[in-house]
């Protein structure tokens, strides 16, 4: 058999496959990046409206990300689901994510309610880890929203996870994520207890800050 011929037919086929997969990945990223832009703009407008009408900015800062392919595949594996782009789009709610960091706890609920009221947004799922904190002390309001994205030839409903928390909650979650969250089992009870103690102190501080804010508002 002429080996050079066998190679020359196989390589273009593999290249074609890789090209197709890369194109699919690019299109998936495009869809989720568009959803992030859309929801971030909504949040920016709400923050701006607060500033103009009520002279305060409820949002301190926002962070957004599209989940990395490794992390997507890891999550599908942990959930026992098929590891493919199609399965990720069907089964995962947090490929696109926005974290909204607010000054006070009351602002979290105000921002969440204003988003949920918008006609083009559908609330798919909500987890209130502020009213019901996780046993490790994690607090945050999570919402999975679905929003239509208008492309040149079709409209696509896209899910995005919005996590809303205070500066204090974000401080704790960011450090806990680095120290503990994903390494999990290997950590001792002593470390767990210390992190939980810090979460309790932070909750107490958030509550005091909220009551100071109410006092200041009354004075004004
Ligand atoms: P990463 O790296 O931050 O993206 P479900 O959507 O219901 O199938 P899921 O995704 O576990 O299940 O939902 P949940 O409970 O709403 O948590 C999703 C995200 O919240 C996590 O994403 C973290 O960002 C954050 N989170 C949840 N629990 C903790 C915690 O104990 N500590 C910290 N620091 N963050 C937490 P990922 O994909 O796990 O990770």
Largest sheet: 5 strands, mixed
Structure annotation, total helices: 6
- For the largest sheet, list the strands in their spatial order: 1-2-5-4-3
Mean pLDDT: 90
- By helix and strand content, what is the structural category? alpha+beta
Percent in strands: 15-25%
Helix/strand order: HEHHEHEEEHH
What overall form do the CA principal axes indicate? flat
Mind telling me the C-alpha Rg?
22 Å
Q: Report how far the terminal alpha carbons are from each other.
A: 89 Å
β-strand number: 5
Give an account of the 3D structure:
- The structure is a single chain.
- With 220 residues, this protein is α+β, with helices and mostly antiparallel strands.
- Helix content is 58%, strand content 20%.
- It has 6 helices and 5 strands.
- Strands 1-2-5-4-3 form a 5-stranded mixed β-sheet.
- A hairpin with a 4-residue loop joins strand 4 and strand 5.
- Helix 5 runs antiparallel to helix 6.
- It starts with a helix and ends with a helix.
- The mean pLDDT is 90.
- The protein binds ligand 0O2.
- Ligand 0O2 binds next to helix 2 and helix 5.
């Amino acid at each position: 058999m002429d080996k050079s011929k066998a190679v020359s037919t196989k390589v273009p086929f593999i290249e074609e496959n890789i090209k197709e997969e890369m194109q699919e990945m690019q299109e998936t990223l495009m869809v989720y990046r568009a959803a992030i832009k859309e929801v971030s703009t909504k949040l920016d407008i709400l923050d701006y409206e607060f500033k103009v009408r009520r002279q305060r900015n409820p949002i301190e800062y926002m962070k957004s990300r599209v989940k990395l392919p490794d992390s997507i595949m890891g999550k599908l594996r942990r959930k026992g689901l098929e590891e493919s782009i199609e399965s990720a789009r069907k089964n995962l709610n947090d490929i696109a994510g926005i974290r909204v960091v607010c000054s006070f706890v009351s602002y979290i609920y105000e921002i969440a309610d204003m988003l949920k009221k918008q006609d083009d947004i559908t609330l798919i799922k909500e987890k209130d880890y502020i009213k019901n904190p996780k046993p490790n002390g994690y607090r945050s309001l999570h919402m999975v929203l679905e929003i239509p994205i208008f492309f040149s030839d079709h409209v696509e409903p896209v899910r995005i996870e919005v996590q809303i928390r205070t500066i204090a909650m974000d401080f704790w979650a960011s450090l806990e994520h680095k120290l503990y969250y994903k390494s999990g089992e290997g950590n001792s009870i002593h470390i767990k207890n210390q992190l939980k103690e810090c979460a309790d102190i932070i909750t107490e501080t958030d509550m005091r800050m909220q009551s100071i804010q109410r006092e200041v508002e009354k004075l004004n």
